[in-house]
Structure formats: C-alpha cells, structure tokens
Design goal:
Helix content is 30%, strand content 30%. With 341 residues, the protein is α+β, with helices and mostly antiparallel strands. The structure holds flavin-adenine dinucleotide (FAD).
Length: 341
C-alpha cells in the first residue's frame, strides 16, 4: 500500500446494500444521479380521511434512487489513487485524528480516519421503521404520475402510521408501511398493512419483486467510537423530524472533500443546531401526543407550497417557511413541549 493516499473500507457490495433512497432533486441533481434514478415525480401528495394535499413543482422532483446503482457509480468513479477494500475494519484503534485497523487480514495505519459505521440507537427513542415491497401489479394503477408520501388512511392504533407509494410505472410500485413510534412491530404487521391498503383499492399483485425494511433513528444517535471522526448518519446527518438524510450527507461529504483539499480535515456539522432543536420539539410533541401526528404532518404540507415543502424537508426552509409551519401547528401542544424542555 506504499502509494496509497486513501482507502475506502466497505465489506458489502453495492448489490448487497440495495434499497431505495429518495430525495427532492433539483435539475442539477437529476443529472448527477441520472444513472441511479428508478423514478421521479413532479407531483407528490399526503392524504388522510378528510383531505388530500397535492404538490406540483417545476423546481424539484421527488426522486427515488437505486442505492446499488448509485454506489456502483461511486465505486467506478473512485480516483485511481483510492483503494477500495471489500472487508470489514476490525481492531480499530483511534489515536489523535488517525489510527490503525485491520481489514481483509491486512493491517492499516492512517493519519486521518473517518467512520461511517451505523451509529447506536437509543432503544426507547423515536424511530421511523418500515417494511416495503416492490411489486408488479396485475392491472395498471390510477395516477402513476403522483408519488404518495403519506397515506394516513390506515390503522393508527399503534402510533403514527402511513403508507408510502412510489409508482415506478403504472404497473410497478414500491409500497411501504411506515411507523413513527418508539416500538418496532413484527414484520407480519407491516405486511398485513400493505395487503390491506392494496385490497382496499382493488390493486392485485402479479409478482412480488423485492422486500426491504429499515429503521431510521429520529433521536440523537451515538457513534460507535467517540475517538474517531464520524461522518454520515453516524455524525447526526439524519433529519430528526423526517428521517431524510441522503441530501444532507451529500452536502456534508462535498464540503469535507473541499476542506481536505485545503488541508482542513474537520468534519462539517451536517445539520444546524437550530434546526436540530426545532426538530426535537416537533418530535417531542409526537412522542407525548402521537394522536396529533396526522394533523401535524397534514398541516405542514398544507401550510407550504411544493417548493417550500421540498426545501423544508431538505432542511433548507426559509424563515417564512418556518413561520408558516409554526402558525399551522396545534399551539398548546407545542407550547407545553417548549416548556417541558
Ligand atoms: C432502508 C433505508 C432506507 C432509507 N431511505 C432513505 C431515503 O429514502 N431518503 C433519505 O434521505 N434517507 C434514507 N435513509 C436514511 C439514510 O439516508 C441512510 O441510512 C444512509 O444509508 C446513511 O448513509 P451512511 O453512509 O451514513 O450509512 P450507511 O449507508 O448505513 O453505511 C454504513 C456502512 O458501514 C459499513 N460497515 C459496517 N460495519 C463496518 C466495518 N466494521 N468496517 C467497514 N464498514 C462497515 C456498512 O456495510 C455500510 O455500508 C434510509 C435508511 C435506511 C436504513
């Protein structure tokens, strides 16, 4: 490894890490991620028993990426000086900014280490947990041009629950049952919710193509090793109120690369402390009064137009966007939550 300036240590292949990553992508990002895009929509909606909020944007498209295709693209574009080691890092010892570890029975010493291993989650903390199927349907579905971000017309008895539907075509869907709560459910529970939602709409499955499940922390996370600089989700890049992290991680890593080229190895803070404080208040209300969840999500979408909503979800909301959302929230619940802190 004498000429090696950087090494990426990753035990799993892109195919082994396949899942769907979604973001609100502007024109530039649409181009950047084009080879990995599975579907993109200029219209998205949230729906409950009383209302449907439909957003149409010319600036952003809600975009779903194949994680495997994106990571293959990243691996193929690695600079020739960067070594990719397909093995787990073990016996990691952080010393100052750098450290040592073994991977694939080789010992490495690094002047600078960055750690993106998944962080620890607080067991009792709020989380977004979901199970989804990618399916081919027997017949064409209605309105494949609209992504359904949250359909709350499902069982709400165990916490805030919604169905998420991305139509990749009129016969190919990703459909997920998603919960925001502190307790995980049996896998069969989410599967049943998906079946019920499809049955209620007379949508018949011709073939189940894939199942994916995930747990995304919605409370502060704990890096595996505090002695090593964390990046990505481990550094707190997951937006606590939404679980979206992809765009924040892209920005953080772009900024870090720029810093490194200037000789500065410190990791940029992925989300501003003010935004994290606001998100914690939002989540605090969800924890204490989960029955307000549907109202809070629907009112957030109603208060904003499509582009402001996309900015809000991406963590780039303007002061005016924030003012609109705050005014739309159930006041007493938020005042009590602020006083509780
Ligand atoms: C199923 C799922 C779907 C998600 N969907 C979205 C979405 O649609 N939009 C969005 O914005 N966010 C989404 N997120 C949240 C977030 O974007 C992802 O979690 C994202 O993958 C975080 O990236 P990361 O690089 O920080 O961590 P990860 O992608 O979790 O990468 C950590 C890597 O560390 C590797 N690793 C573990 N142990 C070792 C070791 N000892 N040595 C070396 N490597 C090791 C793992 O193999 C893994 O590849 C999703 C999360 C999940 C779990």
């Amino acid at each position: 490894m004498s000429n090696c300036t950087a090494a990426v240590i990753e035990p799993r292949t892109p195919a082994e890490r396949e899942c769907s990553w979604a973001l609100w992508a502007d024109h530039h990002q649409q181009k950047k991620f084009s080879t990995a895009i599975k579907g993109s929509w200029r219209q998205w909606r949230l729906i409950d028993h009383h209302n449907e909020v439909l957003h149409s944007s010319d600036l952003y498209r809600y975009t779903s990426l194949s994680a495997a295709k994106y990571m293959t693209q990243c691996e193929n574009n690695l600079d020739p000086s960067v070594v990719l080691v397909r093995a787990a890092a073990e016996d990691i010892v952080g010393t100052g900014k750098g450290g040592s570890f073994t991977a694939g029975s080789q010992h490495y010493k690094a002047a600078q280490l960055y750690d993106s291993r998944p962080p620890k989650m607080i067991d009792s903390g709020l989380k977004q947990h979901f199970l989804g199927w990618e399916v081919r349907t027997k017949y064409a579905i209605d309105k494949p041009e609209i992504a359904t971000l949250m359909d709350f017309r499902v069982d709400q008895s165990r916490g805030l629950h919604f169905i998420y539907v991305l139509p990749f075509s009129d016969r190919r869907l990703l459909i997920e049952s998603t919960m925001i709560s502190s307790r995980l459910e049996d896998k069969e529970w989410y599967r049943q919710a998906i079946k019920q939602w499809l049955q209620d709409r007379d949508i018949e499955i011709e073939e189940k193509l894939r199942e994916e499940a995930g747990i995304i922390p919605m409370q502060s996370v704990i890096p595996i090793d505090n002695d090593i600089a964390s990046i990505g989700a481990a550094s707190g890049a997951i937006r606590l109120s939404s679980g979206y992290a992809f765009t924040g991680i892209q920005t953080q890593i772009d900024q870090l690369a720029q810093r490194i080229s200037l000789g500065n190895y410190t990791v940029p803070t992925p989300i501003s402390p003010t935004l994290t404080r606001m998100d914690k208040i939002y989540n605090g209300v969800l924890m204490v009064q989960p029955e307000l969840g549907v109202t809070m999500m629907m009112r957030t979408a109603q208060a904003l137009d499509a582009d402001s909503f996309a900015r809000f979800m991406l963590g780039y909301a303007s002061a005016l966007d924030w003012a609109r959302v705050i005014l739309a929230m159930p006041k007493m619940a938020f005042i009590k939550q602020v006083l509780r802190r």
